[in-house]
Design goal:
The complex is a heterodimer.
Chain A (H helix, E strand, L loop, with lengths): L1 H25 L2 H17 L1 H4 L5 H21 L29 H11 L3 H11 L5 H8 L3 H21 L8
Chain B lengths: L2 H13 L4 H13 L1 H17 L10 H12 L9 H22 L27 H8 L4 H14 L1
Classes of the chains: A mainly alpha, B mainly alpha.
């Protein structure tokens, strides 16, 4: 009972952040929900180890990203992530036309496409830095990489987006 | 100032992660260098517009669904953690050694299994028992006891 109460607190604190990262990676609400569900089930099973730890979020991000990479790998092979006999969430209402007419500004749509064209690692770092506003040190801890690597990859991601937008004529070449 | 070296600092400039001196240095360079100024403006444009990308909200029902799944599948928070496994193995090994030392007889007292019948050579002495009888009983005795019996016999001769 006590465990469930603590779990609920963890969920309320972290679920939106985890969902945000996963959704931006997989670009599909239902897939993101499945992954978030699995993340929190795993977290629940291992909750004893993390009671009272301030960096529980690092652990959650790590599980979420590993599951996301697995999902993307399987998706690339044309398979979908296994449904581990969990609840069916399809009955929860969701506006599937969410993406339509969302952006008045074309440049936002163009940038969105370019973010999708980044490699999984580049995209992860771009998302954690830009949207989650994590520090380079926090990202390095989550991904178990060096801070220098994270900084370099983030810079490369921005450069890549910029170059592709230039090629498309979305942003102008310098005079 | 070399632009190549400065490019990374432009990102730090946008993030506000430079000290006052570096900030001034970059600001001055951006005013002078068209290429770096363009990079700076493009990065700003990308980052500002990236944040306009919206995502759906996480459905509140997920928490309830998770609780149902946990209940339904009887998922427990208990798991065998490596540290507990290591402690258990240590306690098991330690207690085995401890009890073995208490209950097993001292190895020095144990007769080797394959020693075969104890050969007793008694020269020029007349024994009160026949040799067959002594050897028969001596085979069931431990080494020290055999010696004691022999001492007793020789003392009486």
């Amino acid at each position: 009972m006590k465990d469930k109460k603590i779990f609920e607190e963890y969920y309320i604190t972290h679920a939106n952040k985890i969902y945000s990262v996963v959704y931006r990676m997989v670009n599909n609400h239902q897939d993101a929900i499945d992954i978030v569900q699995e993340v929190f089930l795993r977290a629940y099973k291992n909750m004893d180890s993390f009671k009272g730890l301030s960096k529980f979020s690092t652990y959650l991000y790590r599980i979420a990203l590993n599951l996301t990479y697995d999902f993307l790998r399987k998706k690339k092979k044309g398979r979908k992530i296994e449904n581990l006999d969990h609840e069916d969430f399809s009955f929860y209402s969701f506006n599937t036309n969410f993406e339509k007419n969302l952006y008045d500004d074309q440049i936002v749509e163009d940038i969105k496409k370019e973010i999708e064209n980044l490699t999984d690692k580049q995209k992860t770092i771009f998302i954690l830095k830009t949207y989650e506003e994590l520090t380079y040190e926090e990202i390095a801890r989550i991904l178990r990489k060096r801070v220098g690597t994270i900084k370099a990859t983030y810079f490369q991601s921005l450069q890549k987006i910029r170059e592709n937008l230039k090629k498309k004529g979305v942003i102008k070449n310098e005079m | 100032m070399k632009c190549r070296r400065l490019e990374r600092k432009i990102l730090m400039y946008i993030e506000g992660n430079l000290n006052v001196k570096e900030k001034e240095e970059i600001k001055k360079h951006l005013d002078e260098c068209v290429s770096c100024n363009s990079l700076y403006n493009d990065f700003l444009l990308i980052l500002e517009n990236s944040k306009k990308i919206k995502i759906p909200q996480l459905n509140e029902n997920l928490l309830n669904a998770l609780k149902v799944t946990i209940e339904k599948n009887k998922i427990s928070t208990f798991s065998l953690k490596p540290v507990y496994i290591a402690i258990s193995i240590f306690v098991l090994v330690f207690s085995t050694i401890f009890f073995a030392r208490i209950y097993l007889p001292d190895s020095k007292k144990v007769l080797p299994v394959s020693t075969g019948p104890v050969k007793i050579e008694i020269l020029n002495h007349e024994l009160p028992f026949s040799e067959d009888v002594i050897i028969k009983y001596a085979n069931y005795m431990e080494e020290e006891e055999v010696e004691k019996v022999l001492d007793f016999i020789f003392a009486g001769l």
